[in-house]
Amino acid sequence: MSTAPRARILVVDDEPGLQNTVRRILARNHDVSVASSGPEALAILQRTPHDLAIVDVRMPGMNGFEVLKAIKAAHADTEVIIMTGSISNPEEKLVEALREQAFYFIAKPFEKMVLETLVDRCLERQRLEREKRDWTQALERDLEQARRFQRMLLPRAFPRVPHLRGDVIYAPSEILSGDFYDFFDLGHSRVGVLIADVSGHGVSAALYTGMVKSEMLSVRDEFEHPDVLFARINERLGVTAQRRRHVTALLLILDTESRHLRYVNAGHPGFFTAAGLAWESTGPPLGMLEGAAYEVREAALAPGERLFLYTDGILEAMRPDGTEFGFDRIRDAFDATRGLLPDAAVAAVVNAVQRFTGSEEFADDATAIVLELMP
What we know:
Blueprint: E1 8-12, H1 16-26, E2 31-35, H2 38-47, E3 52-56, H3 64-74, E4 79-84, H4 90-99, E5 104-107, H5 112-153, E6 164-171, E7 179-187, E8 190-198, H6 203-218, H7 226-241, E9 247-255, E10 260-266, E11 272-273, E12 297-300, E13 306-310, H8 312-315, H9 326-335, H10 342-357, E14 366-373
Parallel strand pairs: 1-2, 1-3, 3-4, 4-5
Antiparallel strand pairs: 6-14, 7-8, 8-9, 9-10, 10-12, 11-13, 13-14
Helix pairs in contact: 2-3, 6-7
């Protein structure tokens, strides 16, 4: 006895004997309807969806292939099995049936067991396809919720800090991103700016960004000592993630009144000043080396100074021939934005990358930030 779930099956044939034979074979396990012509079959399907239609090739008016094509156009989820008696060029007809997305092509006369097995196999595949589609849709909904949650981890707007303006472009290469940035109001015209990049991208990298956010909040009392802050995060991430992933991260502590900058750089691509200067790494990526130490560097900034921070999605953006955008092109693109407001400047750099690669899409997550000290 068939174990397939009960389904709706439509038999389309102008021979009453064949209709009755197929109905008798399948009615024990399924709900079977019959139609004597293509138009009648389409009318039935319009009123009541069916899982499967078994259609004869030779019928007056619409032939079986025309019925097959009409069913697939109007009822894509309905599977179709084509039946045939004595026809010429059977291989050609088989190809035509498969081209029009028939599930199978069966020749009359056929054994009862052959028909039952074929129907069961067809319905089983259909069930699996529906389950896969439902699972995919559920996954897409979950990913969209995760994307929204990840966006909630990011700042809603650029911080309001005296003498500072800026803008950000954040471009995930997938629904979820391994890039992360944040701003921290430290009071007294001071702001912390973090940009980070988890190795890889996609779901697992996105989950890791949530860990980085959590760890940053848990040690924010250490902002006066950013080297200690990074060392503590490195220790926690190293234990939690068992070093399966690492994070390059750059943290700036900027006093906009005194124009004094302190920073710690955990293996992140260097950032540039308006003069084209780049800062080197002051320690290894977070979560890579147990017991790692980080050094704080300091700099005095000039009035009107502009800084450019970015992730390696910008640096390593690549042409089809494998040529990377690279440091020199970043410096040149940023230098070309002199006189532009931060939002226009950051957009101009990203546009330069897209022109270079010939694509608006990034192969890796890309984040770019422009900061400007207003005179």
